[in-house]
Amino acid sequence: MDLFLSTFENKIDRKGRLSVPARYRLVFERSNSPLYLFKSLTKSCLEGCGEERINQIVDAIDQMDVLSQDSLTLQTILSSTQEMKFDNEGRILLSEDFIDYAELNNIALFSGIGRSFEIWNPELWHPRDALTRDSAKNGKIPKLIFSRNTSQGNL
């Protein structure tokens, strides 16, 4: 499985076009999946993923009471989701709504977070990153539990 890792900063041109990092584009090419972007529910950024992640959200909604708050929250993700098309230069066109929501200016920061990624205004992301690292240095580290693959005996 391909993952979205690392951070990259790319310019947004005056038309709202943004170059997606080549490593990220490769993930979509390998999986033959479209790129979806949506407004984050909890952060001032956009979130990007492939079709598999969107299907997981839809499947989760299907398992819920359609009128529950949890269902409505996940439906909010889908209502802001846009399928993005790459141009010949590997760029996507961000809507004005997306640009405004994530407070993007001339530069966008891509932050890989595993099976998805985030697009941030670097001026908002860098202080958040520093705060998270400072918290970790002060002992606020999540407990990680790594499961062992028993069929092959590997971690």
Topology (elements, then pairings):
Blueprint: E1 7-11, E2 17-19, H1 22-31, E3 35-39, E4 46-49, H2 51-62, H3 69-80, E5 82-84, E6 91-93, H4 96-101, E7 107-112, E8 117-120, H5 122-137
Antiparallel strand pairs: 1-7, 2-6, 3-4, 3-5, 4-8, 7-8
Helix pairs in contact: 2-3
What does this structure look like?
It is a single chain. This protein has a single domain (7-137), classed as Chemotaxis protein chec, CATH 3.40.1550.20. The longest helix has 16 residues, at 122-137. The strands form two sheets. The chain has a six-stranded antiparallel β-sheet. It is of the alpha+beta class and 155 residues long. It has helices spanning 22-31, 51-62, 69-80, 96-101, 122-137, and strands spanning 7-11, 17-19, 35-39, 46-49, 82-84, 91-93, 107-112, 117-120. Strand 3 (35-39) and strand 4 form a beta hairpin.
Task: Say how many strands there are.
Answer: 8
Number of helices: 5
Task: Tell me the series of helices and strands, N- to C-terminal.
Answer: EEHEEHHEEHEEH
What is the CATH fold-level name? Answer: Chemotaxis protein chec
What is the CATH homologous superfamily assignment? Answer: Transcriptional regulator MraZ domain
Bin the helical content.
25-40%
Q: What class would the helix/strand composition place it in?
A: alpha+beta
Q: What is the molecular shape?
A: globular
Q: Under the CATH scheme, which class? A: Alpha Beta
Across the major sheet, the strand order is 1-7-8-4-3-5
CATH architecture: 3-Layer(aba) Sandwich
Indicate how many domains the architecture comprises: 1
The overall pLDDT average reads 93
- Rg, rounded, reads 17 Å
N-to-C span: 16 Å
Main sheet specs: 6 strands, antiparallel
